[in-house]
Amino acid sequence: MLKIARDTKTLRELTLEKMREAILSNYFRPGQRLVERTLCDELGVSRTIVREVLRHLETEGLVESVPQQGPVVATIDPRKAAEIYEIRGLLEGHAARACAEHCTAEVIAELSLKVVEIENAFNNQDFRMVLEKTTDFYKAMFIGGGKAMAWEIVQSLNARINQLRSMTIGSAGRGAVAIAEMNAILDAIKRRDGEDAHQQSLKHIQSVARLAAAKLGEIDEATGS
Taking Cα atoms as reference points, which of 146, 131, 135, 132 lies closest to residue 96? Predict the structure, then answer.
């Protein structure tokens, strides 16, 4: 299932991508132990590489070390999730405004293409591609607005952001709602309306934050925590 297919990337990079995808797709579930020997067998790589990858995933917040258990898939703390959405609101709202006020026609064309690609991925239920193209959309928006440093901050949280996205994107009707919200942001950027771009960005984040909170509540009830 997890075997690595070699290409031009290093074996460590390929293993990291495969492990990250396995966590985001719930192949490995929150709280599940990650046993080095088992991972070596599943991935077909050395224990050294597995250890390096687990350490990297720990810095991303996708893995945590538990006494007497070792590495496990990190659980999603509702308070931390709320804080991540708060940070997203601050940074993405600011970037949307800046993009509307300063971006080029080429950036708008790229953003438009990414929204189409996200919609196609939703229609095909290709949630891995939804995550990839959504990240591309925000990168174009931040860079197009001249907010490269802010994008670096977002990147440091991107694994946890995508962990939350992976929890919400499969919800019934989420695709149509998400595309409508992203088109509202894009429309404001096209009109060069910085204030509306900022407001539409906040509406989108508030919408998905409510959905994530509800999902996390359901998980707490199911696990009795």
Answer: 146
N-to-C CA span, the chain? 31
CB 166 within 8 A of CB 131: yes
Q: DSSP characters for 127-139? A: HHHHHHHHHHHHH
The residue count of the chain comes to 225
Cα distances (Å, whole numbers) of residue 201 to 37, 133, 138, 170? 44, 17, 11, 21
Cβ–Cβ under 8 Å, residues 134 and 165 = yes
User: How far apart, in whole angstroms, are the C-alpha atoms of residue 149 and residue 95?
Assistant: 11
Give residues with Cβ within 8 angstroms of 205, minimum separation 6.
85, 88, 89, 92, 93
Percent of the chain with pLDDT over 70: 93
Handedness of CA 52, 57, 60, 64 (dihedral sign): negative
Q: What is the mean pLDDT of residues 197-216?
A: 95
pTM of the model: 0.85
